[in-house]
Amino acid sequence: xxxxxxxVSSVVLVFVFLAALPRINSWWLNRNLVPDQGxxxxxxxxxxxxxxxIVVSLEELVDEEPELGxIVVSLEELVDQEPQASDDVFEQQxxxxxxxxxxxxxxxxxxxxxxxxxxxIRNSEVNESIWEQLEEALIVADVGVAATSSVLDRxxxxxxxxxxxxxxxxxxxxxxxxxxDLDVDRTLELNCEGIPVWLFVGVNGVGKTTTIGKLGxxxxxxxxSVVMAAxxxxxxxxxxxxxxxxxxxxxxxxxxxxxxxxxxxxFDAIISAEKRDADVVLxxxxxxxxxxxxxxxxxxxxxxxxxxxxxxxxxxxxxxDATTGQNGLTQAREFARAVDVTGVVLTKLDGSAKxxxxxxxxxxxxxxxxxxxxxxxxxxxxxxxxEEFVETLFSN
Length: 396
Prior knowledge:
Blueprint: H1 2-31, H2 58-64, H3 68-104, H4 108-122, H5 128-140, H6 145-161, H7 167-181, E1 195-201, H8 208-221, E2 226-229, H9 236-249, E3 252-254, H10 262-276, E4 280-284, H11 293-306, E5 311-321, H12 326-339, E6 343-347, H13 357-365, E7 369-373, E8 381-383, H14 386-393
Parallel strand pairs: 1-4, 1-5, 2-3, 2-4, 5-6, 6-7
Antiparallel strand pairs: 7-8
Helix pairs in contact: 1-3, 4-5, 5-6, 6-7, 8-9, 10-11, 11-12, 12-13
């Protein structure tokens, strides 16, 4: 940017000098003419030596040549305004570049699990061997047997209809198909009658409390007023951790006594949110095991109570550790029966080679993956970007 301004400035100054050259020449001659109009030869002591510099101010030239004023003004405007505009554009380009890389660049393990298969397929003709490699690659990525069969059956028909014979063309067709499969609504719902309540459910250790904290921070940055409810009343440490997150992002925090009824704590948070005119309640729940029937029934009760006036359950997020692979699909089935899950949060996706669980959950359960965890930082809980996810899995 600076080099460009220097070049433009130099060109403008050259034109200014050339335009003023006739008057400079006239001034020079008049200064060195004797009364009889004969030229005076400079002496050895004359100040007009080879090293003499002629200095003419730009303002004097403008006074004598008014039309040069427009050039000078244009140059000043260029210097004063263009750098700021260019800086803004440059900073935006850098920011866009960082944001664009922030998702795909952090899926190294998922990509590495597929890279050997992708390379082999790209260098092959379409034959029986290539179909076997594709099947193995998808299963290794934890897409699941049922979802893999569905994907390959449709891809074989596409290959036949479009007469695909090369590996690279087959991979492109696979990416188009998978992007289409993942093209679903992933909106986080805030518009509803009453106080929006987002419930977070899942087994112990998947990162529910941390997910709530990071999401609360994101909502606060967007200008939303947040109330956090410590619905996991069986672990004092869970409530303390959530309180720390609430303090960090400026959210109001509601907790009950240890062992208290989780439903009552969450309902108290809803009442508090109504009084404070808050935008959303983020409610933690205990990390109950999906095979404990009585605990799942208790979770269903939490869902019913949270939906009572003035509350309205807008989202029920099932939080799954991406590293658990197909076990996450089992969890999804059980929790969906109990609490009517609306979306999935996949944590630790950056450290998992089993990213294919996304396809299994969305194809078999019809549940959209709305958020994914890509690191330990407070800004590392991000919306799931399906197109970049597919491109990353099948890139070279």
